[in-house]
Amino acid sequence: MTVAERGIFTGKTGANSRFSRVLFRCLSLLVFGVCSAVFSFAANGYAADDLPVHRPDEPFFLLPDIQKIKARGSLVVAQKAGENPPFFFLERAKTQGVTEAMRFVSGGETVAGTDIEIAKMLAETLGVVFDLRRGYASSQAVVDAVAAGEADMGASGLRVTFDGLQKVRFSEAYALFSYALLVNRHAPLPGGFEITEKSGTDDFERAFNRQDCKIGVESRSAVAEQLPLLFPRATVVQYAPGENPSELLLSHKVDAVLDDDFTFLFSMILRPEQNLYFRILKIPDSQERIALAVNPHLPTLASLADEAARAMRSDSTKELFKEYGSLIHSFAAETSPRQARIPKHQAATENAAHPLRDGQALPPSGISPAALGALGIPLLGFLTAWLMMAGRRNRGTRKN
User: What confidence tens digit (pLDDT) does each residue in 150-161 have?
Assistant: First the structure.
């Protein structure tokens, strides 16, 4: 070995030695990088057969799950039977606030709603046909269909649940609600506590997180998962799906019913007479998420669903009504029953004052202060006018 060759390793040959050391280090880094990449692919289980094949007719490279949807030519979306405005419902002649983006004709019916708008948006983004499959018996059935691969995603006003999280990939929430309790206006709260709009979490804990407090909840529902977390000491009373929980309140079988504030508020819009019997207590610092369910084997579709959900997001019931209030009220006007379904039970405390949602008291007669004011103002005006006319007549009589 020559002196120059020995200098490459000993570092004693001047400029040539420094150049050799730099070259050696660069080659070492290159070899290290190649080896790291090889080991990384091996560790993650990638093989040549697993990599998607780029087709010349595709304008750009597509990920495997998107290639699968585009090869089929349709985005399959599962939805529950029935209606749940503004998420999905059958459009009627007098329904207001429905845009073209929210409409879709399926089986001779025009299905509309925010869920339809989001799903159509995703189908148009992918350049495929929107295939809506309605008729599933429940939200749980929709989630199971998505998990089994019968549908790519579910758009049915779905609540994010612990059970569902183990089966599907939920998107980011496109609607956020608060959990709430429905209570009987005419019955005292457990322990004699009072709850107002300014009440905090501690007040709800003292009133409802008690063994002698019975809270009703629909069996096998998403809300049933939350009750033990919100009020772990309360006694749970489950009622069957479709059963009217107001009967439990009026018969004093439960002290409160748990659901979200949107569900209770919409129910009172459908049947305004319920305001005479019940009031809604929104639970502070509680949150329910409404999201899309995506098949776990379609991660890219799930990312696209996240973006669509962010674009449509409503952060509260108040914000949702601000955006879709005319739609919800017009739907309620067309579908609400003509006769009240609430039995005219008289509570034990009927003659006692009881708080309204706005903190006012309801008179023993059952007429609200607003109604009394609306009747009293015209009567007061008529009485004032009559007194003025009588005074003028008396003055005229005295002059004569």
Answer: 999 999 999 999
